[in-house]
Design a protein that fits this description.
By secondary structure, this protein is of the alpha+beta class. The chain has one domain (2-169): Alpha-D-Glucose-1,6-Bisphosphate, Chain A, domain 4, CATH 3.30.530.20. Helix content is 23%, strand content 32%. The chain is built from three helices and seven strands. Strand 6 (101-110) and strand 7 (116-125) form a beta hairpin.
């Protein structure tokens, strides 16, 4: 079974920044925790992150819902440059309310006024008919609120005009040693 939630926003930034910032920025600045959702403290084994088939191990801080440490594996399923990301969060190290995996999508579309429309979608997967009412409410209430928080964090990073690296792009702060040609020179 699956439950999906969607939100939209408009960013007044470049298409490249709107596309790359949510996936290639320092994840600790994007997933800062909110409510019962814990913050990401760091990632490991992230050398391939950003490329289709790439992955990273995500570590969370302690919260009521999870203990601190390595929690899941993020995978890049699809990437269409400056338009579409699809990722999967899976291989949870502890039960995540009975969910099997989460799939996230980030879609960027340039508007005629130069602004960027963002469509942010998450689908949460479960095999439990018994827990489906809880999963539905969790997705539509808790996860949707968390997505709004994440979206605002991404907006701040994408629209930040302050220098954050030698070429002023926030997504060049990836902890990866090799960007694999993913960031601008």
């Amino acid at each position: 079974m699956q439950t999906t939630t969607k939100i939209t926003a408009t960013f007044d930034t470049t298409l490249e920044r709107a596309f790359k910032s949510p996936m290639l920025c320092d994840i600790t600045k994007v997933h800062t925790g909110y409510g019962i959702t814990p913050k990401v403290t760091h990632c490991t084994e992230d050398e391939s992150w950003g490329k289709v088939g790439g992955s990273r191990k995500v570590h969370l801080g302690k919260a009521l819902t999870v203990k601190a440490g390595e929690t899941s594996l993020d995978k890049v399923l699809e990437r269409e440059e400056n338009h579409y990301w699809k990722i999967e969060i899976c291989e949870f190290s502890s039960p995540m309310f009975g969910f099997e995996k989460f799939q996230g999508e980030w879609i960027t579309t340039e508007q005629t006024d130069g602004k960027i429309k963002i469509r942010y979608i998450y689908t949460l997967f479960s095999n439990s008919l018994l827990f489906y009412p809880f999963h539905f409410l969790f997705t539509k209430l808790v996860w949707r609120i968390y997505m709004k928080h994440v979206l605002e964090n991404v907006r701040k990073l994408a629209m930040d005009k302050a220098p954050t690296s030698t070429n002023k792009e926030p997504y060049n702060l990836l902890p990866c040693k090799d960007f694999g040609g993913l960031s601008s020179p």
